[in-house]
Each structure stands twice: as C-alpha cells, then as structure tokens.
Design brief:
2 copies of one chain form a homodimer.
Chain A (H helix, E strand, L loop, with lengths): L5 H10 L6 H11 L9 H10 L6 H14 L2 E7 L2 E6 L8 E5 L5 E4 L2 H13 L3 E12 L1 H5 L5
Parallel strand pairs in A: 3-5
Antiparallel strand pairs in A: 1-2, 3-4
Helix pairs in contact in A: 3-4
The complex binds manganese (II) ion (MN) (2 copies) and zinc ion (ZN) (2 copies).
Chain A binds a DNA duplex (30 and 30 nucleotides) through helix 4.
Chain lengths: ~150, ~150
DNA sequence: CAGAAAGTTGATAATCTTTCTAATTAAGTG
DNA sequence: CACTTAATTAGAAAGATTATCAACTTTCTG
C-alpha cells in the first residue's frame, strides 16, 4: 500500500511548477519496493537500476534524491562514513530513528512516539511546516567496546 | 569553564594509544572559545586559524574533526547543503537540537530533556555506549512558506 | 642516550556530491 | 495535434571529504 502513487507524486510536483519525469517515477518506485530497514546510497541506486536495464545518470540520481528529501518524500541519513543513505519518509506507525555505532557503523532502528510529538510541537511552535524529524544516536556498540583495537 | 582541558584531552587520547598534538589542542581551543549557537565548517576553521597566524593543513583539520566527533567531543551536523558543520558536544544543561528550514537553511536550536533521556535509555538498552544524540527537524520556515518561489 | 615502533602531519590522489550548460522533454495553449 | 515555455536531463567541471603515503615526531626499549 504505497503512500505515493505516480499520480499523487505528479500532483505534488505540479503544484510547485515541477514535472513528473520517468526518472523520478522510477526512483520513487525503487524506494517503495524496498524492504523495511533497507537504505540506499546514490551509487546503490545507480547500479540497482543498471542491473534492471534502466539507465539514469548519476547526476540525475543525486538531484532527485535531494529533491525528494526537500519535499519530505525521502529522508537523508548519515549511517556510514563517506556517503549518505536514503529511505522513504514514512508517517507515524512506521516512523523511526537510528542508533549507530561510530566505529563499525552497525545500525539499529527504533520507534518513539514521544519524539515524534516533540518534533511536531517544536516545529509548530516556531511556525515551521514539518517535513521530517529524526533522532540520530551516535554510540559505541557492545562488540566495539570489547574490541582492543584503539580505532 | 571548559569541559576539556589540554590535559583531559591528552588523557583521553592516550587512553586509546593516541597523542595530543599542537594541532589537536589548537582546534579544541577554537571550539571552546566559540560563541553559543555558532557552528564551524572545515573551511571556516581553516581560514579562522590562518587569520590568527596558525597554519594547519586542511587534511589535518578534516581528520581531527572526524576524530573528535568519533570521540564524542564534537558533533557533526548537516545544517546546510554541501558541507558539514561542527560544534562542541556539550552535556545536559547545554545539550540541544536543531530545527532547520530545508529551503533557506535558517536554523533554530532548542533543548529537550525528554529526548536526551530517550536517547540515553535506548543506547543503554542495546548495550551501546552513548556519545551523542541529536534530533534534527527538517521543515519549511514561515518566510519560505509565504514565498512564491517554487524552490 | 641511541634505536625501534607507532602515531601524526601535509601533500596528493581518490571518492563523493553539487553545480553548470547545452540539448531534450513535460506541461500548458489554441 | 502543433507550438510555446520552462523544467529536466546527461555529461563535464567544480567543490567537499576521505584515503594513501613518505617524512617527521613522540613514545617506548634496552
Ligand atoms: Mn531507517
Ligand atoms: Mn548547535
Ligand atoms: Zn561497533
Ligand atoms: Zn526558510
């Protein structure tokens, strides 16, 4: 049961004077078909599409990911060093946050209704229109704590 | 009343087999003398030091910012497109979060004890050693909502 | 006080991301 | 279905960040 259909994406884009292109539709579909807890980098998406016979240039992929994040359709995450990851920005019962080990990048997702409420309330109080709120917890996982490596 | 002195930084570095260098001490000092609500990019820091007659190479600056973020001394923030910002990672009464307009990058800091508690509790439950937790709210500010520009 | 071992720096190369531009394409109009 | 207009794309260039490596510094050993 996808949140966005091609039609609703088109409507939202046109509202701002933008256009629905095959590239944008394809990229949205990839994220809607993505398994829970999966996150894609720009390169992941690029090669995933290549394997399916679709060619979308890397610059279009980067541009589209940014655009959809700014629209509130995708979330941009810093899960690992060196590159960003993206996932669908889903509403309440699916909305979640991330706990990340700064050493090995192991990541755990968790939900919190109170945080979502604080986020909404804070945005509202300042007159901001909320797109997404994400708690990022940086920490050291049990394994890395035990590790003797100084890194 | 700085949290870290040169001595305590040295102690924490040595504990992991690392060393306190003049460059690291200088960079820590810059952040400790930074006004509340200020955030620095790697380039900001680079040119700020140049103006004070200190030369630290950009690669050392990037390396040190990463190191201190992984140690929990600094926080790495995505406040604007294209580059990261850093600030001191301060404990409870100073600990705060960020509300950001995705269009104009206007940013508001706010505090929340409940979020800090949820963050600590979540890390603890999973056996993670907490370094930092930051709520990032992406939204559209009142001015940009009124703006007719489609961007 | 040598000499060895390990960490750090600065310069450079590699990688990731954003910006720029000419050619193309979606959307609106008659 | 032309035709106009403005947004979008692909590719190249520029910018930001990370990785690599030789020279240097600090710490440890004998
Ligand atoms: Mn997730
Ligand atoms: Mn701040
Ligand atoms: Zn770990
Ligand atoms: Zn704004």
């Amino acid at each position: 049961m996808p949140i966005y259909t091609a039609a609703s994406l088109k409507a939202e884009l046109n509202e701002k004077g933008w256009r629905l292109t095959p590239q944008r539709e394809t990229i949205l579909q990839v994220f809607q078909n993505l398994a829970e807890g999966k996150h894609l980098s720009a390169e992941d998406l690029y090669y995933m599409l290549q394997n399916e016979g679709e060619h979308i240039s890397l610059s279009t992929i980067y541009r589209t990911l940014k655009l959809m994040a700014r629209m509130g359709i995708l979330r941009e995450l810093e899960l690992a060093e060196g590159h960003k990851h993206y996932e669908l920005n889903q509403p309440y019962p699916y909305h979640h946050h991330h706990l990340i080990c700064v050493r090995c990048n192991k990541m755990i997702e968790f939900k919190s209704e109170p945080i979502l409420k604080i986020g909404s309330k804070t945005a509202q109080k300042e007159g901001y229109h909320l797109l997404d709120c994400q708690l990022t917890i940086h920490a050291v996982c049990p394994t890395c704590q035990r590790s003797l490596l100084p890194a």
